[in-house]
Amino acid sequence: MNAGEAKAVGTQAIRSYRDLEVWQAAMDVAEQCYRLTKTFPKDELFGLTMQIRRAAVSVAANIAEGYGREGKGEYLQFLRIAQGSLKELETYLLLSVRIGLVAEGESAPVLANCDRVGKMLHRLIRALRNSSAVKRPHP
Description:
The chain has 139 residues and is mainly alpha-helical. The protein has helices at 21-37, 45-68, 72-98, 104-130.
């Protein structure tokens, strides 16, 4: 396994961005956000509901897009964008609690998973920065 790629589930080799644990965890967060925002009032559909969903999807999408790029620098840039989207998502979730759209207990598991994804992204970025490979081999 390339030092710049996250460990796959089990000991399988990374064949696709879908094998990356960080992408899988980001997809879980996006799914949680869709479920959580279903309870938001209809008048928030084009407000926080849309913002939360867009930011959540952006995290996984940027991990995938970066993986598909040829150069390590591009991959790192997309991972950093994913980190930014994750912080944006956390902010929207915290605001949702503050204005009473969702109870703190309902948002806590999502925020905990955001923290987990953030740590995974940080480790992946650090591993890529420290690797000597200029380009990642991918199928």
